Amino acid sequence: MKSPLLIALLLTLLLRTVQAAPAERVLQLDDGTPLIITPTVDISSADDETGQLVTFKLVQDCKIDGVVLIPKGTVVNGKIERAEHSKMFGKKGILEISISDTKAVDGSPLEIRTTLESKGNIAQNTADKVHRILPYGTGMLFNGKDAILAAGTHFTVFVDGTSKFKIVGGKKAFRIKN
Question: What is 22-176's CATH number, 1.10.10, 2.60.40, 2.40.128, 1.10.1070?
């Protein structure tokens, strides 16, 4: 009589243990996964300098199979590689920014790749066009336009490298070291 009761008790404990164990699975964030970012403030060739660090934020969650791996609003770091002010003779300003990294939901660093470029417009309206074609004596008095990456403007950047995340309990993601 003790054997069937003991077996039933052990089976009950075993079933509870199996049911209580959180489901674990592995998700992969692939190299080249696109992320949409926006500058946190306006970045301009008139006001900002080469070598200056700049920040962006993620516009939407980066999800794989419904699990957020990089949450919306996460800071994305960048650096101004080249900033040239607009000049005389209608020469436009130039702004080149490299994007370097961000953080995953668990705080682990993720490399990002791309270079954003912006060039100021030479002629926005008829008056600008007229100034460009005037002889050097008067045309040289007019500057080109500075390059601006406005806050709220969306840009696409890409995850650099493949990362794996272990999902515990269906929602919590932890990066697996490669």
Answer: 2.40.128
